[in-house]
């Protein structure tokens, strides 16, 4: 790529070194912004014509030229001129080819600094909405899966040690709520993406009588930035988005990790269907959980982009610095990654998992995860909880040494431990009852879970 020395101004005598030109250029990745660049230029042109900075006739010509470029681009016929450094120059050069000298007026009262900020915001605003739709779809599938698994029991863990049994629906719904916050968070970020830097100029505003409110309105921004230096130097919204994207990935990655564990021989809670699992090239017996593993793995790069952007920004004096060109590749990649992971996880949940209910039933019955319920049994009958807790600790110890579970103790043995125990202790410690009894607000009790699902569905039907 050779750089036309005329790109900037006559003060340059020599062309850029070709390697430096390539190093400097962003065209290889910022073409992603072209439709938004055109939208920004259309609004800018209309404003220039409305304020009389260019004539109505010139405005028409520019608009026609921009439209032509859009058509060329959509038809795959937009050829990037050889020395275009970035999408902004590429469009302006093509416009000048199409419209002659009038094309050279497009950049009046504007700089690439406010232009690139405008394009990035328009692009991100659109992408955020696409991601929010994917989040909703993911939630929808979680809801469906939860609804059909209210009374499926699964061991619940703390410290990855069996703690208390849960309704599988309750476990899955935890992700519904996490993702609900993701959806809200993106909506909040969007408010700060939606501010117009157009008209901030290079850094200080412009001598022309522009109307920034008009361009903001045309581009459906909520308002223009109130300070031109802030407008061209602000990338907070990119950082905020990358942070929200990272949190989405945390959620997906945690679920992915659980699915990987659940599908292992050791847990055996779930089998992956053929549509979502892969084989090994050497071990014919294997079914690998590549989808959740990839989601877990890709999480790292989204975190990396957040960290990268924070570091790019931390030492920048106001206002624009070329370092800001580094905002795009990470942003684009984070968007692509979050979208693909959301799509893959949604498919995995929808048609990739078969919960093994026999194994789950067995799992919740073969441990001491009902021990708290024995303590609660005593506490509900007046024994102070700490005393009850210590007593049950002893019982568990004796059971372990004699190879028994709590359900295997005879009524006599129970009564020896404490005279309050009666025949209803057996019912109180069945896994079904243990789950069912946790009917406190937000708990795993089946009634609670049914209410939780009904509320989610109701809210959902209003939103979607
Ligand atoms: N390609 C540049 C970017 O992405 C556009 C802005 C260039 N501005 C400048 N003053 N060199 O940031």
Could you please describe the fold and organization of this structure?
The protein starts with 17 loop residues before the first helix and ends with a helix. It is elongated and about 100 Å long. It has 19 helices and six strands. It folds into three domains: 13-108, Fumarase C, Chain B, domain 1 (Orthogonal Bundle); 113-149 and 168-207 and 220-358, Fumarase/aspartase (Central domain) (Fumarase C, Chain A, domain 2, Up-down Bundle), CATH 1.20.200; 365-463, Ribonucleotide Reductase Protein R1, domain 1 (Orthogonal Bundle). The strands form three sheets. The protein has a two-stranded antiparallel sheet. Helix 6 (112-147) packs parallel to helix 12 (327-352) and helix 7 runs antiparallel to helix 10. The protein has helices spanning 18-24, 27-30, 34-50, 56-74, 87-99, 112-147, 168-193, 212-218, 228-233, 236-262, 290-314, 327-352, 357-365, 371-380, 385-401, 411-417, 425-428, 431-436, 446-463, and strands at residues 153-158, 161-167, 195-196, 223-224, 270-272, 353-355. The protein has 464 residues and is mainly alpha-helical. Residues 26, 30, 86, 112-113, 116, 320, 322, 324-325 line the site of arginine.
Total helical segments:
19
Mean pLDDT: 94
Largest sheet: 2 strands, antiparallel
Q: How many domains comprise the coordinates?
A: 3
Bound molecules: arginine
Name the assembly state: single chain
C-alpha geometry: elongated
Cα-atom radius of gyration: 31 Å
Low-confidence regions = none
Order of helices and strands: HHHHHHEEHEHEHHEHHEHHHHHHH
Roughly how much helix do the residues carry, as a percent range?
55-70%
**Any idea what the CATH superfamily of the largest domain is called?**
Fumarase/aspartase (Central domain)
> In percent, how much strand structure appears in the residues?
under 5%
Give me the secondary-structure category: mainly alpha
């Amino acid at each position: 790529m050779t750089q036309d020395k005329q790109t900037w101004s006559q003060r340059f005598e020599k062309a850029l070194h070709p390697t430096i030109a390539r190093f400097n250029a962003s065209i290889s990745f910022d073409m992603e912004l072209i439709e938004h660049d055109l939208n920004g230029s259309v609004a800018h042109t209309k404003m220039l014509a409305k304020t009389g900075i260019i004539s109505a006739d010139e405005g028409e010509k520019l608009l026609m030229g921009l439209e032509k470029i859009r058509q060329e681009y959509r038809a795959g016929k937009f050829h990037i001129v050889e020395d275009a450094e970035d999408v902004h120059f590429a469009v302006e050069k093509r416009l000048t080819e199409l419209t002659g000298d009038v094309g050279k007026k497009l950049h009046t009262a504007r700089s690439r600094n406010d232009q690139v900020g405008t394009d990035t915001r328009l692009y991100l605003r659109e992408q955020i909405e696409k991601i929010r739709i994917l989040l909703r779809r993911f939630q929808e599938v979680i809801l469906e899966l939860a609804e059909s698994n209210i009374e499926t029991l699964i061991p619940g863990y703390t410290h990855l040690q069996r703690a208390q049994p849960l309704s599988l629906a309750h476990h899955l719904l935890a992700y519904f709520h996490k993702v609900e916050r993701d959806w809200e968070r993106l909506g909040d970020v969007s408010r700060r993406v939606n501010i117009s830097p157009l008209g901030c100029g290079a850094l200080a505003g412009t001598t022309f009588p522009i109307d920034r409110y008009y361009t903001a309105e045309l581009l459906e921004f909520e308002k223009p930035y109130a300070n031109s230096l802030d407008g061209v130097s602000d990338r907070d919204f990119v950082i905020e988005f990358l942070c929200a994207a990272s949190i989405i990935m945390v959620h997906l990655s945690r679920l992915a990790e659980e699915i990987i564990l659940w599908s292992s021989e050791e847990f055996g809670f779930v089998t992956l269907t053929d549509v979502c699992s892969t084989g090994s090239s050497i071990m014919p017996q294997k079914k690998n959980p590549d989808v959740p593993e990839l989601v877990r793995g890709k999480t790292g790069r989204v975190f990396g982009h957040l960290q990268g952007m924070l570091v790019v920004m931390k030492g920048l004096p106001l206002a624009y610095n070329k370092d800001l060109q580094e905002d795009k590749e990470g942003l684009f990649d984070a968007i692509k990654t979050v979208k693909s992971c959301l799509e893959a996880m949604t498919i995995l949940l929808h048609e990739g998992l078969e919960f093994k209910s026999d194994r789950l039933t067995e799992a919740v019955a073969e441990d001491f995860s009902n021990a708290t319920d024995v303590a609660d049994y005593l506490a509900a009958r007046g024994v102070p909880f700490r005393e009850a807790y210590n007593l049950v600790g002893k019982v568990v110890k004796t059971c372990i040494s004699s190879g028994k579970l709590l359900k295997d103790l005879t009524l006599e043995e129970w009564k020896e431990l404490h005279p309050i125990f009666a025949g209803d202790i057996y019912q109180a410690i069945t896994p079904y009852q243990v789950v069912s009894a946790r009917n406190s607000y937000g708990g795993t009790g089946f009634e609670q879970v049914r209410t939780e699902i009904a509320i989610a569905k109701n809210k959902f039907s209003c939103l979607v």
